[in-house]
């Protein structure tokens, strides 16, 4: 497990139940030694601070290189995501079942706002 | 006893020797005084005709013209350093006059700077004699020359500084050009990555939609398996590795996914809906690979952004701070050099003027003397005379 952590990094998921289940079936889920999962299910009862806490924890963990987050959840903790400038871990915003992908809300693309002239948003 | 007698003998011997030494020294001093006196009269008398020191050219010229006692007096001034005979002895001048001793200290100090110590060897007395009248002028001349050399030294160092500055300016400009090229290359890469990101994100949106749809299908077929899945998490099947990719000197991280271990959910859906579940799993795996690619693009994007900002900052710093500073220093150095040149030029002109004036005065005096019908006192011109009489010793 230690070797795996050294070489291979994990993909974390923060999102609604369906997204998490889907990705776990894809095979990214793992429980580490302290029984800590690399995913978090967010439903309508979850508070913002909880999500924030979880996100910060994932950032601190050195075996997580990619964090997938639903766009609606990302909206909740937009300020934390915007403060995160390091290239690793990479924070990717994915659409959920009820919220299709909105490029204007993506924090990465917002950084390059002045750059692209013709950008088609679906 | 014998020791006492021998010591007393020695003592008396010593006193005898000392007495003899004093006598000899007195004789020597007398002789030197006489030599000095005779030398003075010899030099004075033979000014007209030429002597062993000055040469005998005058002898040939002067026989044709008349002599006048008043002009003789003027010409009888001879330089002190022509006293060759006196100066050949180290003890001579101490005997002659006490005035010279007073100035010996001054002469000793100047003797350090003087390289030429006259005809005799390296001794202070003769230098005392030298140090005063005739050579004082030389000493001053030497001092001024050394100052002149120092000034030229600073000019040389200023020229060196100018070339140094020129090199620095060239270096700064070259660095500026190179950095600009690097910034441009990075910017191009940046734009291409951005375009790819946008495309991939749009694609990802589609893939996610499809995956979610297949999830709904599987749920419909199998029933609710959410809790089962969430509880049975043990080890990740797909993991990512990061590699470093070098672009224009920048290390960009690139992710690649790889499979590590077997599928935890292999037996899931065995009851019913296995095909749907399989399809679902495949869809999500496809989504994961796409997302990993997207993540790589995103990290390169962020890294490049930082590097481009730093490079641009450096380019601007060179362009607006360093190059103007060097240029200003260079301009200052050039102006200083120009000023030095102007000073030299002015000094030369002044000296020429003064020389001209003094020459005019001398001409005037000569003309006056000629008018009074005197001997011509043109200086012996070595170059003119074809018949140089051999100086026989």
UniProtKB/TrEMBL annotation, chain A:
<comment type="similarity">
    <text>Belongs to the V-ATPase F subunit family.</text>
</comment>
<comment type="function">
    <text>Subunit of the V1 complex of vacuolar(H+)-ATPase (V-ATPase), a multisubunit enzyme composed of a peripheral complex (V1) that hydrolyzes ATP and a membrane integral complex (V0) that translocates protons. V-ATPase is responsible for acidifying and maintaining the pH of intracellular compartments and in some cell types, is targeted to the plasma membrane, where it is responsible for acidifying the extracellular environment.</text>
</comment>
<keyword id="KW-0813">Transport</keyword>
<dbReference type="GO" id="GO:0046961">
    <property type="term" value="F:proton-transporting ATPase activity, rotational mechanism"/>
</dbReference>
<dbReference type="InterPro" id="IPR005772">
    <property type="entry name" value="ATPase_V1-cplx_fsu_euk"/>
</dbReference>
<dbReference type="GO" id="GO:0033180">
    <property type="term" value="C:proton-transporting V-type ATPase, V1 domain"/>
</dbReference>
<dbReference type="InterPro" id="IPR008218">
    <property type="entry name" value="ATPase_V1-cplx_f_g_su"/>
</dbReference>
<protein>
    <recommendedName>
        <fullName>V-type proton ATPase subunit F</fullName>
    </recommendedName>
</protein>
<dbReference type="InterPro" id="IPR036906">
    <property type="entry name" value="ATPase_V1_fsu_sf"/>
</dbReference>
<comment type="subunit">
    <text>V-ATPase is a heteromultimeric enzyme made up of two complexes: the ATP-hydrolytic V1 complex and the proton translocation V0 complex.</text>
</comment>
<keyword id="KW-0375">Hydrogen ion transport</keyword>
<dbReference type="Pfam" id="PF01990">
    <property type="entry name" value="ATP-synt_F"/>
</dbReference>
<keyword id="KW-0406">Ion transport</keyword>
Automatic annotation (TrEMBL), chain B:
<keyword id="KW-0406">Ion transport</keyword>
<keyword id="KW-0805">Transcription regulation</keyword>
<feature type="region of interest" description="Disordered">
    <location>
        <begin position="104"/>
        <end position="159"/>
    </location>
</feature>
<dbReference type="Pfam" id="PF09340">
    <property type="entry name" value="NuA4"/>
</dbReference>
<keyword id="KW-0813">Transport</keyword>
<keyword id="KW-0156">Chromatin regulator</keyword>
<keyword id="KW-0175">Coiled coil</keyword>
<dbReference type="GO" id="GO:0005634">
    <property type="term" value="C:nucleus"/>
</dbReference>
<feature type="compositionally biased region" description="Basic residues">
    <location>
        <begin position="142"/>
        <end position="159"/>
    </location>
</feature>
<dbReference type="InterPro" id="IPR015418">
    <property type="entry name" value="Eaf6"/>
</dbReference>
<comment type="similarity">
    <text>Belongs to the EAF6 family.</text>
</comment>
<dbReference type="GO" id="GO:0046961">
    <property type="term" value="F:proton-transporting ATPase activity, rotational mechanism"/>
</dbReference>
<comment type="similarity">
    <text>Belongs to the V-ATPase D subunit family.</text>
</comment>
<keyword id="KW-0804">Transcription</keyword>
<comment type="subunit">
    <text>V-ATPase is a heteromultimeric enzyme made up of two complexes: the ATP-hydrolytic V1 complex and the proton translocation V0 complex. The V1 complex consists of three catalytic AB heterodimers that form a heterohexamer, three peripheral stalks each consisting of EG heterodimers, one central rotor including subunits D and F, and the regulatory subunits C and H. The proton translocation complex V0 consists of the proton transport subunit a, a ring of proteolipid subunits c9c'', rotary subunit d, subunits e and f, and the accessory subunits VhaAC45 and ATP6AP2.</text>
</comment>
<keyword id="KW-0539">Nucleus</keyword>
<feature type="coiled-coil region">
    <location>
        <begin position="323"/>
        <end position="381"/>
    </location>
</feature>
<comment type="function">
    <text>Subunit of the V1 complex of vacuolar(H+)-ATPase (V-ATPase), a multisubunit enzyme composed of a peripheral complex (V1) that hydrolyzes ATP and a membrane integral complex (V0) that translocates protons. V-ATPase is responsible for acidifying and maintaining the pH of intracellular compartments and in some cell types, is targeted to the plasma membrane, where it is responsible for acidifying the extracellular environment.</text>
</comment>
<dbReference type="GO" id="GO:0000123">
    <property type="term" value="C:histone acetyltransferase complex"/>
</dbReference>
<dbReference type="Pfam" id="PF01813">
    <property type="entry name" value="ATP-synt_D"/>
</dbReference>
<dbReference type="GO" id="GO:0006325">
    <property type="term" value="P:chromatin organization"/>
</dbReference>
<protein>
    <recommendedName>
        <fullName>Chromatin modification-related protein MEAF6</fullName>
    </recommendedName>
</protein>
């Amino acid at each position: 497990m230690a070797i795996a952590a050294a070489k291979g990094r994990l993909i974390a998921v923060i999102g609604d139940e369906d997204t998490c289940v889907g990705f776990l079936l894809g095979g990214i889920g793992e429980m580490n030694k302290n029984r800590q999962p690399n995913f978090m299910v967010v439903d309508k009862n979850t508070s913002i601070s909880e999500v924030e806490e979880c996100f910060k924890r994932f950032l601190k963990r050195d075996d997580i290189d990619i964090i997938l987050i639903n766009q609606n959840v990302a909206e909740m903790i937009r300020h934390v995501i915007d403060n995160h400038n390091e290239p690793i871990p990479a924070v990717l915003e994915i659409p959920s079942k009820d919220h299709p992908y909105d490029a204007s809300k993506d924090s990465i693309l917002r950084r390059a706002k002045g750059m692209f002239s013709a950008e088609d948003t679906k | 006893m014998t020791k006492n007698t021998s010591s007393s003998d020695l003592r008396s011997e010593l006193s005898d020797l000392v007495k003899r030494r004093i006598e000899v020294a007195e004789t020597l001093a007398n002789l030197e005084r006489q030599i000095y006196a005779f030398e003075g009269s010899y030099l004075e008398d033979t000014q007209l005709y030429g002597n062993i020191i000055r040469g005998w050219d005058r002898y040939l010229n002067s026989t044709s013209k008349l002599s006048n006692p008043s002009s003789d007096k003027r010409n009888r001034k001879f330089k002190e350093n022509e006293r060759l005979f006196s100066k050949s002895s180290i003890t001579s001048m101490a005997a002659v006059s006490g005035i010279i001793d007073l100035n010996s200290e001054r002469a000793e100090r100047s003797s350090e700077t003087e390289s030429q110590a006259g005809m005799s060897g390296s001794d202070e007395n003769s230098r005392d004699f030298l140090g005063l009248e005739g050579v004082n002028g030389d000493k001053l001349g030497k001092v001024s020359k050394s100052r002149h050399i120092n000034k030229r030294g600073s000019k040389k160092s200023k020229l060196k500084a100018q070339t140094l500055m020129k090199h620095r300016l060239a270096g700064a400009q070259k660095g500026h050009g190179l950095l600009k090229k690097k910034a441009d290359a990075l910017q191009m890469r940046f734009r291409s990555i951005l375009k790819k990101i946008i495309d991939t994100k749009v694609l990802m949106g589609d893939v996610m939609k499809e995956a979610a749809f297949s999830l709904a299908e599987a749920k419909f077929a199998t029933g609710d398996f959410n809790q089962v899945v969430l509880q049975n998490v043990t080890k990740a099947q797909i993991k990512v590795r990061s590699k470093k990719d070098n672009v224009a000197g920048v290390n960009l991280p690139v992710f690649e996914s790889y499979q590590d271990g077997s599928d935890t959910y292999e037996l899931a859906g065995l009851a019913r809906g296995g095909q749907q579940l399989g399809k679902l799993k495949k869809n999500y795996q496809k989504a994961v690979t796409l997302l990993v690619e997207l993540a790589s693009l995103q990290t390169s994007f962020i890294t490049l952004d930082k590097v481009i900002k730093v490079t641009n900052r450096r380019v601007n710093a060179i362009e607006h701070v360093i190059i103007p500073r060097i240029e200003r220093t260079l301009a200052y150095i050039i102006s200083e050099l120009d000023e030095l040149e102007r000073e030299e030029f002015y000094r030369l002109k002044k000296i020429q003027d003064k020389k001209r004036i003094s020459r005019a005065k001398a001409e005037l005096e000569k003309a006056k003397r000629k008018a009074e019908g005197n001997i011509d006192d043109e200086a012996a011109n070595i170059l003119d005379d074809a018949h140089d009489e051999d100086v026989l010793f």
